[in-house]
Design a protein that fits this description.
With 214 residues, this protein is an alpha/beta fold. It contains 11 helices and 6 strands. It starts with 5 loop residues before the first strand and ends with a helix.
């Protein structure tokens, strides 16, 4: 197996087991606005989407949201993550093993505040350094390739020489559109869905260093 020049990680569902928490808070918010919803439905509807796209979907159903809604919601999520965020089992060990040999970056459709909070809680700031990207850092969120193109550039690598680690169909499409090899972690998304989107699927973070040739 040819070792990549860099590895570009998604965050939620890959490093941080935060999707259930975020979806619970989002469901509570939408229920309060008249769109009754539970956390699992929020996950099904919004998995992998960036906040501008989520806002459009909500406003189509409930009417206009107040100015600054995304920022207020992100702050609420960040406060909760500061005490409740947990790593995906085996993810931190795998990340550190990979980072000993290869440049790594993180690229997430989360807001910058949420992303920085998650990395701080898991003490990953030093691992990624300045190679941290939220949807707010690029022109277009996933499934567009912009965020992974920026992450590859930050590592000094050509996209075609990078491997993306993703857990959602939206993220897999973004990585593939950027020209990267994509490994799809089947944590909650079905194996078949990730494979259909173009990912090489794996089911255990313990396998990741071997899949990357490190």
């Amino acid at each position: 197996m040819i070792r990549p020049s860099a590895v570009l990680f998604d965050c939620d569902g890959v490093l941080v087991d935060s999707e259930g928490l975020v979806n619970r808070i989002l469901a509570e918010e939408l229920t309060g606005r008249g769109w009754a919803m539970e956390g699992p439905e929020a996950r099904e509807r919004f998995l992998g989407m960036a906040w501008p796209d989520i806002r459009v979907a909500i406003e189509t159903r409930t009417g206009g949201l107040p100015a600054g809604w995304e920022g207020s919601f992100a702050h609420r999520v960040a406060r909760t993550l500061a005490t409740e965020a947990l790593p995906i089992p085996g993810a931190l060990e795998a990340l550190h093993a990979v980072a000993r040999h290869l440049p790594v970056a993180v690229a997430s459709n989360s807001s910058r505040e949420e992303l920085e909070t998650k990395l701080a809680v898991l003490e990953l700031g030093a691992v990624f350094g300045a190679r941290v990207f939220s949807f707010q850092d690029v022109a277009r969120p996933k499934p567009h390739p912009d965020i992974y193109l920026a992450a590859a550039q930050s590592c000094g690598a050509e996209p075609g020489q990078c491997v993306v680690i993703e857990d959602s169909v939206t993220g897999v499409r973004a990585g593939r559109a950027a020209g990267c090899r994509v490994l799809g972690f089947a944590h909650e998304t079905p194996v078949e869905a990730l494979a259909m989107a173009g990912a090489e699927v794996f089911t255990s973070m313990a396998a990741l260093p071997r899949l990357l040739g490190v």
